[in-house]
Amino acid sequence: MLNLTGRLQRLSEQKNMNPIQEAITGEEGLGNLSSPYQALVQFYRAFNSGDLQLMSANWAQAEDVAMDNPLGGIKRGWAEIRSVYERIFTGPAEVRVEYFDYTIHETQEMFYAVGRERGYSRVGDEKINLAIRTSRIFKKFDGRWRQVHHHGSIDDPVLLGRYQAALLGKR
What we know:
171 residues, Nuclear Transport Factor 2, Chain: A, six-stranded mixed beta sheet, 5 helices, globular
């Protein structure tokens, strides 16, 4: 968990809109989910631990939520988005990512985070290092943030092909 000095530095950087370099891994302590930072921690904890129940709690349970990522294309509604996470969590690959080089832009009822993910995908002895541009949009429901949109892009077409092959079984 970040110490007080680290939190104050993060808040100071945020006010200046300087990208935050300290990565969110999901291993940070879960605190008050009315905080954008904590909503992001919850997402990365759910993803990196393969916890579909926690992932479901992070997303708004609505038909108008959307996700556009390298594995699933565009998915709309929680049921379609859930299927992508189920495939990742139960598939043959171990995937871990962390969020860094990000900024958070907040209004009273919505925030979005723009940054990068780094990490890896591993199937057996084959490890693929990941570099993904990522944005996430959260909306406030009953005092807590829930994700309503995610977009992720892999710039390198060779890396994208290897990642899709590993996770979707297309070799």
